[in-house]
């Protein structure tokens, strides 16, 4: 289930390792592609085209049967998975072994106005919408004579100082700065980017030195980085912060954390912060042949003495997929299970232009060398030769010809907010709740 880093990799390995007469592989996913999420901010920035960061499942998978839809309910007693197809029909899929990799979605809190007005950075549509929206704000600001409207349209707020928030603020600030040159009547001083995080440091997983280096660089570029501060409430024209200030803005990008997709709770088994509890073999305790991985699962981290669970990263999800595929086959054939053990290889963060910070294998890098490592890493880990080719072509094109800074006009009929683009309208009712007669 799921065609992201975990589900797609697992399906490919199962195709390779299972004999054709041994099992039928069904991949349940609403998309017909696998998406390379770490490059989403570059799609929002217009550096990469949306198609460049996806690989089509139809050509990448040969044997697996694609079932286009979302898994809503997994019945562990009857060994069936209920799927809402993209056509709206519901079908029930029997299974002997199931691997759950539905990933995560943006976690929102009860912050007034957030779901209705904020934007996310978790899907291709959100990245494309954000770009259109940002360019439209500058065009509208330039055509307005109202100072309050101009200030709100030129004010951009990103909440969340993890890699996705930092990359979004850093790359998008460069886009809007370049776009401003097209509007001579618009005072460049009006452009204001604010990056908030409730934590005292940006990207603590990068270590103190690199986190501080990124903060200094963003501040030098004019991004107002506010730490220990978050969003208190928002409307469509302003954001009220917990430090008491109110910023005029029509754009709040919310990247402050993720939560597993709701299908996880339908199993009725133990969860930690919504993530499916699995053992070191990725199997759900007391449910043979039921595996979980990636952002949706709390996988024990066996590489650190203090324990804990693995981080929600692409690196873990794709490596866990190999363990899940091996163990799924062991469950079918009756062999021994392996434990998941992987030491993190580091993190790369693109700050736009020639700037980046990276920590490959524990070595701190910043500046153009880090950018070289960052781009090399993405090319190595992109899902297919075709995506690598397209990504390299887009980078070259962007370097030589710059950005056309046009809107594709997806905004016309849709607000493109979190509520609309990310939070699925279907509410999943768990078996547990069905028995109790409750609504989720
Ligand atoms: C902007 C951004 C930048 C990032 N940068 C990095 C980085 O630099 N390095 C890094 O290691 N990690 C990075 N990450 C995190 C990384 O992308 C995730 O940890 C990783 O994608 C998790 O893989 P996954 O397979 O669990 O989920 P995903 O890759 O999210 O895949 C989940 C799949 O399940 C499908 N799905 C959802 N619900 C259902 C359902 N009910 N039924 C069936 N299918 C379903 C989805 O459509 C999707 O195909 C970044 C994330 C973001 C958003």
From TrEMBL:
This is Oxidoreductase. Belongs to the NADH dehydrogenase family. The keyword rRNA-binding does not apply. Pfam families: Pyr_redox_2. InterPro entries: FAD/NAD-bd_sf (IPR036188), FAD/NAD-binding_dom (IPR023753), NDH-2 (IPR045024). Keywords: FAD, Flavoprotein, NAD, Oxidoreductase. One of its GO terms (molecular function) is NADH dehydrogenase activity. Gene3D superfamilies: 3.50.50.100. Residues 2-320 form the FAD/NAD(P)-binding domain. It comes from the Bacteria. The keyword Nucleus does not apply.
